[in-house]
């Protein structure tokens, strides 16, 4: 059990680097098995989920090691195409190994993935696309057995731009006969990052960042080195923490375009946002203003992953904000915990109405999920007095040395592991 001890009230001030992206690292680690090429990844965050992905690689027979921000993978000796339940349940993106194993081995056997409990998280779109490409898939008792020796390229129409389905199709298509085109693809920066890696290992792939991604033939390279993009959700969290505490923080090594919708709402809340070359400064007033209505949408819309942390920043904002969560059905799990701090939030279905209060007071909280836990940290930093967050390892799945980073900005926070 991780226990986060915080004393709120300090303005966050100063400058910090933002870690590499978890959600870009995980599919790229899975993709590293598509060909026997050696992969070196730079700027990889040291996180439980990354560790779990590397353990899956080792189980499959690969060499996979992390030294600081560098990950070295050699998948030449890969000798298995099945992943046991104990490894699958550690995180959601283990499901991306399905596409990668299909490309490398012509089949995969795995169980349904784990990850944050944000409501139903089916993988029907992944499976329908793979079946359309010729895979034979049996599902029984939470297990998936997929045989896909003769996969062929297809034109696939996704009814919803699922990030994971887009990634799985891109990976499986790498070794399919003929071209694959994904219409209605997810447009997230992590998809562009995956495309950049796949191009580096020798795959013809184009269109990531738009809603049409095409995958052509594969001429494997021997070795690649690839730098992971900065984490836009960690950057959004630090920006919200700065805003919540009336702070003045510069985030370095970020791509402001990746979280421009979050910066847009912080600006409407009264913050000055100063962008320069790969850095963003958020300078907040003593009290924020409410931002009216905001809705989560697939990229380039407002990200669902930043919804809990922006909600936390707005708890003391003057006026009323209404949030509509359109991506996950259960992404307000942080709300009852934020209410313990004195927040005035009413949830009805997908809508959450927040009335800014004058003051939040420290309390004992329990982290419910990764971003919900981060939201509790943001809110506790803005609350008077002491808070304790009991966390079953959710926050450290996505935030690298978050206590240290926040301390360097003046926060009074200490993580007891
Ligand atoms: C990715 O999850 C991220 N995870 C999530 O980040 C993020 O919240 C999400 O994309 C949306 O941006 C990783 O990249 C590892 P989806 P993913 O498939 O791929 C429904 C975090 O906090 N859906 O785009 O699972 C699904 O139920 C995490 O870092 C289907 O119905 O997201 C959900 O409502 C949490 N059928 C919506 O689509 C499918 O086959 C979005 O899911 C697939 C998805």
Plain-language structure description:
This protein has a 4-stranded mixed beta sheet. A 4-stranded mixed beta sheet has the order 2-14-16-15. Helix 4 (96-105) packs parallel to helix 6 and helix 10 runs parallel beside helix 12. Helices cover 29% and strands 27% of the residues. The protein has 417 residues and is of the alpha+beta class. A hairpin with a 2-residue loop joins strand 15 and strand 16. It is elongated, with a radius of gyration of 21 Å. The model has no long low-confidence stretch (mean pLDDT 95). The structure holds ligand EPZ. Ligand EPZ is lined by residues 23, 26, 92-93, 116, 120-126, 160, 162-165, 186, 190, 304-305, 327-328, 370-371, 398.
Summarize this structure as a short list of keywords or feature phrases.
417 residues; binds ligand EPZ; alpha+beta; four-stranded mixed β-sheet; 29% helix; single chain
Q: Specify the biggest β-sheet.
A: 4 strands, mixed
- Say how many strands there are: 23
Low-confidence stretches: none
What's the Cα radius of gyration?
A: 21 Å
Q: What gap, in angstroms, lies between the N and C termini? A: 6 Å
Instruction: Give the % helix.
Output: 25-40%
Task: Tell me what portion of residues adopts beta-strand conformation.
Answer: 25-35%
Structural category: alpha+beta
How many helical stretches? 13
**Largest sheet strand order:** 21-22-1-23
Shape: elongated
Bound molecules: ligand EPZ
Q: How confident overall, as mean pLDDT?
A: 95
């Amino acid at each position: 059990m991780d226990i986060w001890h915080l004393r709120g009230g300090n303005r966050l001030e100063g400058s910090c680097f933002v870690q590499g992206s978890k959600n870009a690292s995980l599919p790229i680690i899975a993709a590293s098995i598509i060909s026997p090429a050696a992969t070196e990844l730079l700027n990889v965050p040291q996180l439980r989920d990354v560790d779990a992905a590397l353990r899956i690689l080792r189980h499959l027979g690969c060499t996979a090691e992390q030294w600081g921000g560098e990950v070295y993978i050699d998948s030449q000796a890969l000798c298995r195409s099945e992943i046991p339940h104990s490894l699958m349940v550690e995180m959601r993106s283990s499901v991306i190994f399905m596409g990668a194993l299909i490309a490398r081995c012509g089949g995969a056997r795995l169980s349904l993935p784990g990850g944050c409990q944000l409501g139903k998280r089916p993988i029907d779109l992944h499976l329908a696309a793979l079946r359309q490409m010729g895979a034979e898939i049996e599902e029984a008792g939470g297990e998936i057995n997929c045989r896909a020796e003769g996969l062929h390229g297809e034109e696939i129409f996704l009814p919803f731009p699922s990030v994971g389905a887009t990634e799985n199709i891109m990976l499986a298509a790498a070794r399919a006969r003929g071209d694959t085109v994904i219409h209605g693809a997810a447009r997230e920066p992590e998809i562009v990052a995956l495309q950049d890696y796949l191009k580096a290992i020798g795959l013809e792939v184009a269109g990531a960042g738009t809603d049409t991604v095409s995958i052509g033939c594969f001429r494997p390279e021997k070795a690649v080195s690839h730098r992971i993009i900065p984490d836009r959700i960690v950057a959004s969290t630090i920006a919200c923490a700065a805003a919540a505490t009336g702070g003045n923080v510069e985030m370095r090594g970020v791509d402001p375009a990746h979280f421009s919708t979050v910066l847009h709402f912080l600006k409407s809340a009264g913050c000055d946002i100063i962008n320069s070359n790969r850095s963003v400064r958020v300078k907040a007033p003593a009290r924020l203003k409410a931002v009216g209505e905001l809705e989560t949408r697939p990229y380039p819309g407002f990200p669902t992953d930043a919804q809990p942390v922006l909600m936390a920043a707005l708890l003391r904002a003057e006026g009323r904000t209404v949030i509509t969560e359109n991506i996950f059905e259960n992404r307000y799990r942080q709300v009852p915990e934020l209410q313990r701090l004195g927040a005035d939030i009413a949830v009805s279905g997908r809508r959450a109405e927040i009335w800014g209060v004058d003051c939040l007071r420290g309390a004992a909280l329990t982290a419910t999920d990764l971003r919900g836990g981060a939201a509790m940290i943001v809110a506790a930093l803005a609350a008077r007095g002491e808070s304790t967050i009991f966390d079953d390892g959710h926050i450290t799945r996505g935030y690298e040395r978050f206590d240290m980073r926040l301390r360097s900005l003046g926060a009074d926070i200490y993580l007891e592991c």
